[in-house]
Design brief:
- The chain is an alpha/beta fold and about 325 residues long.
- Helices cover about 35% and strands about 15% of the residues.
- It has twelve helices and nine strands.
- A nine-stranded mixed sheet has the order 6-5-4-3-2-1-7-8-9.
- Strand 7 and strand 8 (about 265-270) form a beta hairpin.
- The longest helix is centred in the C-terminal third of the chain and has 17 residues, at about 230-245.
- The radius of gyration is 19 Å and the shape is globular.
Length: about 325
Amino acid sequence: MIEKPFFVILTNRCNLACPHCYNELDPLKIVKSKEQDAMSRERLQFLFGQLKEQGYEKGFFSGGEALLRSDAPEVVGDAHALGLKTALFTNGHLFTPQIIARLARAGLDEVRISLNELAWIRNRDQYEHVFARQTEWVSALREAGIGVGIIFIISQRSMLYMAESHERVRQLGAGMKIQPLYLPHDVKGYQSAAAGRMAEGDWNGLLTELESLVARTDFTAESDFEVYSNPWKLLRYLRFVRDVYVMGARPDFCPTGPLLIVDSDGYFHPCLFRFDLVCGHIASDADVRAVRSRVDGHEELRRAPCFREECLSAYR
């Protein structure tokens, strides 16, 4: 059964400056400020209580880099205390034993680490360095009782390492998701890195690798992977991505929209990529109490009328 989710962007600040970050590239994202985080912990507590009453079941906490907000573990704990499941998206660079302990005490269910820098590697040495650095805390997280998933970004530079990364991630006890590297045509790096420049043969080669991985999978043991289990889902998703890029395919429906997104400035939106649509603000009690009906009122998003390449990152 799919849990009713919501997303909270705890901060738009980040310790990295990835060229493909949608905070920088998407004209509909409309980032308003990176200087401060407008939502107080007390106001978020009120929001979580109302979301629980409205039937939401799982909170995804993101950024920017979510851990740049100093009270991020405690905010997650406030959601957990109300019976909400919780997951944290991060680039993995800010973990320390102390932060992991705080997240464990907060009851965090899952961490999802995005290997953003792998999309820009140029050689094997860079791959080894980046992979080791961004996955070094996986074992400590799992020992703390937190499930771990890894997000691998497919680009012209990283595609040679997809299958290997999948094997290595699973040896660490984590599952893996894949996403294509989206870059607009006018952004530096488009020619040499963007997934949109990959040839049909490149996609078919990746599919062949995944088909081999699926054939070797012991599906009776997939329950050991708490996040991003079942590589067959990766295969299904990659086929869809290939068809989008090669044949111009588009989906019949959006699997996420309408979806409550709470930006760090406190505004509510019905889609991760449609910040031009506003459903209220966290400062208004009336908006908070009516947020699900307002978000779900954008049912037209379910039919994916505004599907764009960057939306692929939200699919699974």
